[in-house]
Amino acid sequence: MNTPISHVEEDTEKRCTSNREADVVVVGAGIFGCAVAFALAKQGRSVFLLEKSLKQPDRIVGELLQPGGISALEKLGLSHCLEDIDAVPVYGYEVIYYGKGVRIPYPDKKIEGNGSYDYSNAKGGKPEGRAFHHGRFISQLRKACAQQPNITIVETEVMETIESSDGSQVIGVQTRTLNPETGVKEKDHYYAQLTIIADGYASRFRKQYINNTPIVKSKFYALELIDCPLPAPCHGTVILETLLRFFSTK
Fold first, then answer.
1. What is the reported pTM?
2. Which end of the chain is more exposed for a tag (fewer CB within 10 A), N or C?
């Protein structure tokens, strides 16, 4: 759903005087939303980072960040977000195929040809990944964004985009923000030259801008094992006969 600018003309003066305009609006303070907001803010751009709920997420999503992801965080200046979240270093995989295990470490040097990769370890050591709780990592990313002076984080529910009168450009978003005094969600608007939608797999905007319907081809199930000894400490353990993956320091 999108609102033409003609429907919000009464807010023009409010737009200019209420500090609701920035260079960029980012919808969704997940991994990508926080990362892109932080990167743009470091370029000197003002950013509104809008998130429906700033509570720490409690779900299992992408618990292993590969070496390339670690390198990307270092380049963004966000590698400190991996600290103090009980992140486990990962040096490769233990692949168990019907009872027979093979340990596959991450390559320790750049490979040329079709298998080439771009990885730089700020500490100068071998490539390594990190396994961690998704929610704790998100909280650290949000904390880093909150400390960036060019980013304003707002807990608000984005309802729809706002388009120019000819429909050629998205100029902002319409939201509902909880008034702590009344307990009622009130309509609000945020405007920017660039609007980035990063509200995740359950996006309310995907159908609006993408005609193709996503096809679910697989499902993910997780089982938390407390203090369970595994074949390869600090390695991802892939058991092909049951399609399970574990991470452990033991």
1. 0.82
2. C
